[in-house]
């Protein structure tokens, strides 16, 4: 087709002007396509009308009149209340202290790396009076039984899951959100916090102002009080992200206190070669672990806990709690195994008896 067109073009160019006009008409008829999807030239774009409306000015976060948030809660804000010990000072931080998990300029408290301490002096007598006023008269046995029957079942819609983080700061806001439409909230506890349920109950009551009216293994019911008003709930600023955990002193020493290096090595080998006292599962219920370890220490000097599939971070959390609650001395964390030594308890008892 192209060859024929070129030959025709050559003939028309070499002919007279009359034939040239014939060529122009032929070229126009054959070059312009009649197909609407194949135009001979690109269509000109219509100019867009200019937008005369001015964009709405959004206030900058730092210029928001609602910020910084001021809260009258009488305790220091922490990521976890039940799984942290304010008495132990960290030896380092994994992020600068200026990075507050509440966001820049969103809280009237200064973040210290582990907590946001309160700047107000707390009148404990006035605080207890207000809490007693909200709780009102104690519930009768019939009222408690009615609330338990309503909220204790596993299909209850008013439930909060408490995991290895324990009683976290944002959980307080979830509790008050449930209390808007329900008298009590069901809390299901799993993982490391179940080692010390008394500690969990204390922080739930202390930080939320409610009352634990039911406790069965790892299930709790937290009651809001007779005179609770959702419109008078405290201001709880939310944490926007989980802060990095600080660096604490080493839990397991190379040489245990009261032992030589050879004795410590022998204790570790004995623990690794002994049968496990218990096998712990991930996010399990550990309410009976402390009693089992205490009973084992009556006859054994070294105890091994099999924490396979639990995770090394949870193993260390378990070891820290057992160290204070049993009490005992963790001497080894290896391959998700915890080796516990009861310490020189017998010698101290003999010396005190003498």
TrEMBL record:
The keyword Repeat applies. GO terms for molecular function: RNA binding. Pfam families: CRS1_YhbY (PF01985). One of its GO terms (biological process) is mRNA processing. It comes from the Eukaryota. InterPro entries: CAF1P_plant, RNA-binding_CRM, YhbY-like_sf. One of its GO terms (cellular component) is ribonucleoprotein complex. Gene3D superfamilies: YhbY-like. Keywords: mRNA processing, mRNA splicing, Repeat, Ribonucleoprotein, RNA-binding, Transit peptide. Residues 33-69 are annotated as: Disordered. Residues 137-235, 257-353 form the CRM domain. This is CRM domain-containing protein.
């Amino acid at each position: 087709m192209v060859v024929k067109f070129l030959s025709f073009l050559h003939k028309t160019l070499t002919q007279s002007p009359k034939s040239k006009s014939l060529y122009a008409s032929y070229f126009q008829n054959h070059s312009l396509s009649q197909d609407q999807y194949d135009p001979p030239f690109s269509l000109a774009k219509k100019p867009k009308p200019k937008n005369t409306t001015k964009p709405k000015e959004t206030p900058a976060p730092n210029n928001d009149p609602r910020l910084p948030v001021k809260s009258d809660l009488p305790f220091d804000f922490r990521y976890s209340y039940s799984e942290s010990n304010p008495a132990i000072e960290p030896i380092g931080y994994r992020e600068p202290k200026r990075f507050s998990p509440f966001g820049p300029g969103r809280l009237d408290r200064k973040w210290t790396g582990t907590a946001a301490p309160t700047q107000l002096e707390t009148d404990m007598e006035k605080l207890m009076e207000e809490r007693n006023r909200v709780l009102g008269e104690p519930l009768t046995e019939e009222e408690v039984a009615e609330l338990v029957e309503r909220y204790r079942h596993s299909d209850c819609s008013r439930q909060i899951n408490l995991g290895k983080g324990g009683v976290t700061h944002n959980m307080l806001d979830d509790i008050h959100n449930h209390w808007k439409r329900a008298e009590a909230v069901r809390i299901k506890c799993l993982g490391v916090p179940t080692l010390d349920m008394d500690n969990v109950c204390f922080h739930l009551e202390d930080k939320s102002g409610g009352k634990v009216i039911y406790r069965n293994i790892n299930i709790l019911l937290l009651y809001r009080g007779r005179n609770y008003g959702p419109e008078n709930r405290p201001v709880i600023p939310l944490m926007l992200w989980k802060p990095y955990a600080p660096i604490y002193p080493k839990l397991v020493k190379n040489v245990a206190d009261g032992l030589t290096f050879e004795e410590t090595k022998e204790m570790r080998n004995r623990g690794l070669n002994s049968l496990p006292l218990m096998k712990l599962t991930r996010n399990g219920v550990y309410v009976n672990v402390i009693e089992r370890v205490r009973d084992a220490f009556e006859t054994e000097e070294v105890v091994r806990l099999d924490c396979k599939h639990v995770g090394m971070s949870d193993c260390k959390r378990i070891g820290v709690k057992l160290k204070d609650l049993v009490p005992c001395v963790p001497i080894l964390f290896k391959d998700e195994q915890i080796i516990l030594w009861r310490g020189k308890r017998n010698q101290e008892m003999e010396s005190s008896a003498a």
